[in-house]
Every structure is written in structure tokens, then in C-alpha cells.
Amino acid sequence: MLDAAVKIISILKDAGHDAYLAGGCVRDRLLGIEPKDFDVATSATPTQLGEIFRNTQLVGEAFGVVLVRLMNCHIEVATFRTEWGYTDGRRPDGVSFTDAEHDAQRRDFTINGLFEDPIEHQIIDYVGGQDDLKAGIIRAIGDPDKRFNEDYLRLLRAIRFAARLGFEIELKTARAIRNHARYLGQISRERIGIEIDWMFGPTVKPSQKSLAAELIQELHLDGPVLNEDHLITPIPTLAGLPDDPDVDTPTCLAAWMLDRHARHGVELLVFLGRPFDRTVTQWRNALALSNEQRDALVHTLKVTARIMQWDELDVAGKKRLLASARWTQGHLLFEAMKEVQLVPVIADELKKQVPALLDEGVNPEPWVTGGDLIKFGLKPGPQFGDWLDQAYDAQLDGTVCDRQQALDWLKTKVLSNPSDDDG
Ligand code: ATP
Ligand code: MG
Which of 23, 95, 136, 310 registers the highest number of CB atoms within 10 A of its CB? Predict the structure, then answer.
């Protein structure tokens, strides 16, 4: 991809235009991080780009961005532009083409305002981005209040970059974020959700996730992000989640939810003991979570709640829990809840029992099926499910040891009490 971008730049320069790598990719290259994508900025207009390159596609006509296809890559090539208007706090009312310096000035943070000429090996810095990159500082370009007022998404972008890079947010920039936090709700919930997903996804390091949550709370963005009252809480559970690919965004949200709403033993039991529908629904709407993410969040909390009641589960119940879809995440969440006094006892039991249960197998093929019940001479009906559940429990807890025993056991049970449908 870098090769394609460099080739595009060299073609543009040969045609007499200015052209640079721009923005995030320059920042990442200077930090020694592999950039997600490579963007090119140029003095050539979209019309000129269409004449120079054979395979182009206008992606944002109003913004002067052209997708150039070269060497099997798609590279965004944007004409230097300045933006104006921003009456809705989301997007500019208009853009006009300009030079590199003004293009740098319309970008959000100094570390994102750099250009690189990869052919001359030169960095072009109109905004002091290199110094801030060296010092580890996120600083708005120009007047922070004005810049956040133009586009409220920048409030969350600042947090994301600070968390990802472990950078400090410069004082005036931080103050401006807090002052504008309440307007974040003007951004679409989907875009807020995407930013949060980028902060909490499985590839993000635990320290970066904690920093993101702390900054969001500290800078008063938690209210508008999560659609609830502002609250600064410690986040031991979120911070306690391990660096593990199974820890996904819903797991982090579940942890943060417990930290914010149910951190102490008693609160936690009450929170997990009742359906946590209201908070989940609120967060679901706030972050535009997909049904899949919402279910993952709910099931992670439910698994954790069941683990809290581990002593009360019989062997079959324990095996069913171990076989459930979000066991891994619920278990990791449980382990992360270091502050809850009731946990150590259960944690010891889990450590002893879980490997043995897994050894025995927690989701074997059922020995008895509906077909067997029909062979007993029974008519399919709603009680079939209950009988099969009971037979499966007997299989899981070792009451029966093979298919024949399972059939005999169920036959006795069913035929001695054929209308028994609730155990
Ligand atoms: P990432 O690593 O997440 O891709 P990035 O900095 O490359 O980070 P992009 O969204 O890819 O972010 O945008 C590329 C560049 O465009 C940014 O580096 C920045 O210069 C500019 N930019 C993007 N979004 C905004 C915004 N909302 N306001 C101002 N400038 C922006
Ligand atoms: Mg990028």
C-alpha cells in the first residue's frame, strides 16, 4: 500500500503538482507504527487527477477526494482544501481548494497535521506536530474551542489518540473538550459507537482501554457517550481485564458497567440478580450496539451472575454454564472483579473444579433424542423438551454412564409418570 501511495506521489510530482503523504499515516510512520491506511494530499484538483490516473473514482465530490486504484490498492487522494461553515457541528458547509499549509490547518490535532514527501524523505510541518509527537501531546490545531465547535466527533478522536498512543491531552485542549462535552450528543450514535469500539476492541491493549475510559469520565464525556449521568468512578474491573483476544468490546462494556453501577459486593449481587435491562438498553441506544453486541453484553453479565452463585449449581448446571456461548468472557470478567469480597472463595472453587469438569466434557452429544421418545410410543409434545433436558442433565452429572443407561433411566421416569412435565 505504501508503494502504491509513493508511486502516486511520484506521478503527481512529475506532472508538476505538490503531493505528500498526509495525516495519520505520517504520524504512525514517525512513531514506528504500521499505518492503517495511507492518504495522499495534493495540489492537483479532482479533475486533474481524473486526467492523470486511469482508474479513479470520486468519493466525496464536495470534499475533493478521489480514490485512485493503482498496483491493486485503493488510495485516497485529496486535493488540499480548507473547510468552512460547520453550522451543524458535524460537517463543513463548504470547502475550497487551497495550499498545503491551509490544508494542514483544517486538520484536527497537531500530530495529525503533518505531511511527508517520501521521495525527498522530508517532513513538512506547519503546525508543530513533530514537537508534540516527540513530547507525547495531543493538541488541537488553532483555537481548541473553535475546533471542537466545528466538529464534535473530534472530542472522541482526541481521547482515542491519547489512549492509543499513551499521550497527554494539552491543558487548553482538555479544557475545551470538557466545555463541549455536552454537545457530543449531536453526533450520530453510530459514530459514537464506532469510536468506542475502536477504543475497546480486542486488538487494543488493556492499559489503553483503561486510559480511554478514565479520560472519557474525567473530561465529562461519559454522560453523553453512555446516555446517563456524569459519574467519575474507579474502574478496577475494566482495568483488571487481561490482554486476551476473547476480551471484546461487549466484555469491556460489561466491565465498565459494573464499575460504574455495581462495584461493591452487595451492589453487584443486586445488580446481577435483577435483569439489568434498563442500563443495557440505555447503553445499547447510546452506542447504537448491534443486536449481536447487545446479546454478547447481556450474556457476559449473565454468565458472571451465574458464576457468583456457583455453590448453588449442581454438576449439570455447572457444565451447562461452562458450555454456554459467553462462558469465556463471563469468566474473564468474573476474574477481573478483584474488589468484590465474595469472589475469592468462588474463585478458588472455580480453579479446582473447572478443569475437571472440562476434562469430563461439558457439551457432549446427547445420548437420548426425541426419536427415542417416539420409539417408547410417546407422541411428540411440549413435555419432550423437559424430558430430554432431564436426560441430558443426568448424562452431564453422571447419573447415567452410557446411552443404554440413559434410555433405561428415561423410560422408567417417563413411563412411571407420563404426565410429569416439570420435573
Ligand atoms: P487512524 O489511525 O484511526 O486512521 P487517522 O489520523 O489516520 O487515524 P483518519 O480518520 O484516517 O484518522 O483521517 C486521516 C486524517 O484526516 C487525520 O489524520 C486528520 O488529519 C484528518 N481528519 C480526520 N478526521 C478529522 C476530523 N474529524 N477533523 C479534522 N481532521 C480530521
Ligand atoms: Mg487513517
Answer: 23
